Amino acid sequence: MPTRHIPKLADRLALLVLRRMGFRRHWVETSVGRMHAVVGRGNGRLPKMVMLHGFSSAGVHYLPLIRRLLPVTQGIACPDLAGHGFSVTPKDGLVADVLRASLLETMDSIIDEPVVLLGNSMGGLAAIHYAKERPEKVRGLILLSPGGAMMERHEIEELGRTFEVDSHGEALQFVDRLLSRPSPMRSLLALGIRASFAKPSLQQLMSSIEQEDLLTPEDLAALQMPALLMWGQDERILPPSSFAFFRDHLPDHIKLIEPEGFGHSPFLDDPDRLFHIVLGFLADVESHTAGDWTDWQPLSA
Fold first, then answer.
1. 94-140: per-residue pLDDT in tens?
2. d(CA 148, CA 161)
3. Residue range(s) defining the domain that contains residue 24
4. Separation in Å, CA 250 to CA 208, 215, 254, 256, 274
5. What is the pLDDT of residues 275-295, one digit of tens each?
6. What string of H, E and C letters represents the secondary structure of 246-298?
7. CA-based diameter of the chain, in Å?
8. Long-range Cβ pairs for the range 60-64 (8 Å, 24+)
9. Cα angle at 256 between 39 and 42, to 5 degrees?
10. How many domains does the chain have?
11. Cα 120 to the chain's mean position, in Å?
């Protein structure tokens, strides 16, 4: 049977806050086990959103951004990928194919009309895959330091070593690379990261990545919806070669911005400034019709 890991206390507290904001828990029975999402109805007119988290993270970690966006959107959903958050760890282990299959089934269950997808890191890769598989369900795409860029085998192994955290000191160093500037929560974040990275299922996922699991230029060329890719100037988790892949292969209609003061997870660095960038994108998605995207420019970063 699939296994259910115990979510961190911080995740449970964030879930409690979201429940108080009116979010409900949504469970999806997939072919690899029971997946979890939080779904909230907004009070605004801008498109519904689905937010996909990164490696070792969870949907509830978007709380700082959710609190700002919910009042102006029609709603927000945040699923937990398999083996993350409140979702189960599949009985056969966690590998890329399993992750993709469970996400596809979960997203099909929670999306009842075209949405704007937002994905960070591994969640950016997941968002690209879903947009390619279900373009009719994706109104727009926001990618924050997306993972999945084409790499050589030695680059995959080097990236994997980035997530090998064997001591509190190494966890602190990872936090310093993750964030754009020092955080008063540095030590607590390090404790959570060390515990998450030590999970066998996540170690298995990272060690199982092969070149065929990564994106190709053709995958990016298939994205026809409005899209914004943000790569912060303080990105220190993904290698420069990943940025070069996206920069060199993005279709012309996808906008690329490189704002200062943003690292790997901008919603942790400066949720207010990220909110305004996302808000500008949502407003333009709402106002533009298909085929009328060439004049779009992102809100100042």
1. 999 999 999 999 999 999 999 999 999 999 999 999 999 999 999 99
2. 16
3. 9-152+216-287
4. 26, 12, 6, 9, 21
5. 999 999 999 999 875 445 555
6. HHHHCCCCCEEECCCCCCCCHHHHCHHHHHHHHHHHHHHHHHCCCCCCCCCCC
7. 52
8. 60/11, 60/14, 60/15, 60/18, 60/85, 61/11, 61/14, 61/267, 62/267, 63/14, 63/17, 63/18, 64/267, 64/268, 64/271
9. 20
10. 1
11. 3
In the chain, pLDDT over 70 holds for what percent of residues? Answer: 93
Residues paired with 33 in a beta bridge: 30
Please count the CA atoms within 13 angstroms of the CA of 130 that sit on its side-chain side: 35
Residue 210: phi, psi to the nearest 5?
-120, 165
Per DSSP bridges, beta strands 75-79 and 33-41 are: antiparallel
CA distances from 231 to 236, 250, 273 (A): 10, 13, 14
Residue 102: Cβ-neighbour burial (10 angstroms; 0-12, 13-18, 19+): buried
What's the one-letter identity of residue 27? Answer: W
According to the model, what pLDDT value does residue 220 have? Answer: 98
Domain contains 144: yes
Q: Are 50 and 115 in contact (CB under 8 A)?
A: yes
Phi, psi of 219 (to 5 degrees): -60, -45
Which CATH number do you get for residue 271?
A: 3.40.50.1820
pTM here is: 0.94
